[in-house]
């Protein structure tokens, strides 16, 4: 994100959005985030939820990567996990910070194409589980439509 300042948040979003769509299995992640509300949703609702989830993911990263101060990512290894999952372990080094940030990307092969399905920060914080927990109350009170509206609102807030 060496160009973060000149791109601005919308430019960062535009650059990250296709990478997010091509790297993550967003339909699976959105479905897991919706939990039991996914199955009864219509195909159109599911499609809109996946799109909103994707936009939210890109907008979140666009706000997080807001500058460059010499940070570096280093892949430190791969580990096999349960159910044909592969963990790709990395370290984010931030100059001036006492400790590095460990990030494990959780990947799975879908018909010959590896896709990320979760990101685990510092050895235990699953980003997907955080989202599932965060969305639970919205889903209980208003279902998939309420979650789509919540995600759209957050995207608009992050990009403005």
Account of the protein in words:
This protein has one domain: Nuclear Transport Factor 2, Chain: A. Helices cover 52% and strands 24% of the residues. It is built from four helices and five strands. The chain has a five-stranded antiparallel β-sheet. A hairpin with a 2-residue loop joins strand 3 and strand 4. The chain is globular, with a radius of gyration of 16 Å. The mean pLDDT is 95.
Nutshell version of this structure?
This protein is of the alpha+beta class and about 160 residues long. Helix content is about 50%, strand content about 25%.
User: How many β-strand stretches?
Assistant: 5
Helix/strand order? HHHEEEEEH
Q: What integer value in Å does the Rg equal?
A: 16 Å
By CATH, the architecture is named Roll
Please indicate the count of domains. Answer: 1
The CATH topology assignment is Nuclear Transport Factor 2, Chain: A
The major β-sheet equals: 5 strands, antiparallel
N- to C-terminal distance: 19 Å
Going across the major beta sheet, what is the strand order? 1-2-3-4-5
Relative helix content: 40-55%
Instruction: Return the average pLDDT rounded to an integer.
Output: 95
Structural category: alpha+beta
Query: Shape from CA axes?
Result: globular
Stretches where pLDDT is under 50 for at least 5 consecutive residues are: none
CATH superfamily: Tgt2/MlaC
What's the CATH C level? Alpha Beta
Helical stretch tally: 4
Strand content: 15-25%
